[in-house]
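Need residues for this backbone.
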């Protein structure tokens, strides 16, 4: 009985925490919206871009839509060369990713380190976002920082779902892929913190 009560309490706390986080996000979006309304008659292009990135980071769908209609560009870059789509991918905002793609966001644009939105999503372990980008035709072979490919990043994270999805979309490169994954496993890059091999090692027999 005692354990049951503790379990129910933990659920209540989790629900309240999630609600609090959503409320905080909503307040942030409202504040960003108020600032934009006050300054939009004389706002500069740079300020519009900065507001866009803040709106995307905060998953402010309505404000992002308004900013895009006000002239903000889906091809805007932050100081690291990342576009709004990569920001949405980094935070796992699926609805925002859909909005930006619908507005023509460049799917395979890379930041200064070479990372695409897909790589960022995989690295952040945001499975739904990564799957959406793959479905929309993201180049699964473009490497991110240090030359790490999305499939290698997914293998390191131990995300078997993304590894499988990436493998099915890599056409005509089975021998090279097998060699890369074999090297990943042998060098230890495919070892998870627990000491277990990442899924890439287990998938090798399927792709020879």
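Answer:
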């Amino acid at each position: 009985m005692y354990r049951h009560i503790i379990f129910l309490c933990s659920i209540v706390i989790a629900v309240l925490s999630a609600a609090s986080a959503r409320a905080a996000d909503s307040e942030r979006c409202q504040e960003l919206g108020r600032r934009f309304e006050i300054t939009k008659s004389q706002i500069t292009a740079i300020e519009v871009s900065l507001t866009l990135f803040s709106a995307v980071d905060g998953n402010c769908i309505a404000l992002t839509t308004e900013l895009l209609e006000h002239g903000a560009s889906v091809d805007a870059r932050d100081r690291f060369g990342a576009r709004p789509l990569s920001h949405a991918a980094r935070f796992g905002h699926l609805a925002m990713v859909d909005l930006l793609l619908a507005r023509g966001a460049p799917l395979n644009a890379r930041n200064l380190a070479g990372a695409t939105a897909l790589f960022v999503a995989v690295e952040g372990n945001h499975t739904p976002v990564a799957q959406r980008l793959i479905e929309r035709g993201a180049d699964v072979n473009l490497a991110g920082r240090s030359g790490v490919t999305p499939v290698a990043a997914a293998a390191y994270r131990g995300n078997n779902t993304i590894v499988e999805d990436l493998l099915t979309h890599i056409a005509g490169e089975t021998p090279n892929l097998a060699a890369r994954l074999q090297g990943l496993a042998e060098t230890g890059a495919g070892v998870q913190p627990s000491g277990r091999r990442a899924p890439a090692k287990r998938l090798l027999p399927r792709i020879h």
